[in-house]
Specification:
Blueprint: E1 2-8, E2 13-20, H1 36-42, E3 50-53, H2 56-65, E4 68-72, E5 90-92, H3 98-109
Parallel strand pairs: 3-4, 4-5
Antiparallel strand pairs: 1-2
Amino acid sequence: MIGAVVIDVDDTLCLTEAAYHEGNTRFMKPDPRAFDELLAAAGLRPDECVYVGDSPGDAQAANGAGLRFIACLQSGIRKRQDFAAHRVDAFIDAFPDVVEAVASLDGARS
């Protein structure tokens, strides 16, 4: 499943606007086209988005779609080296760290 979450880092606002899953989308991860409908519905470009995932397949999909990618290691199943074949913009140890990680990505782009 791909969830569309809006995070306004300045105000730490998190709103789930939609959920995309095999029942309502034509493509599934790791096919990067899985993000096409979500981006079109939100009116966003890939370079304006960050995908947070916990598997190399998530990284593959995000990379292929031109999204920045944050790898979440919270489950303990994956290690940093599991993502070596993919571009990872940041690693987080727990999902609550995502707001800070996104803020650091935005700072790096300025």
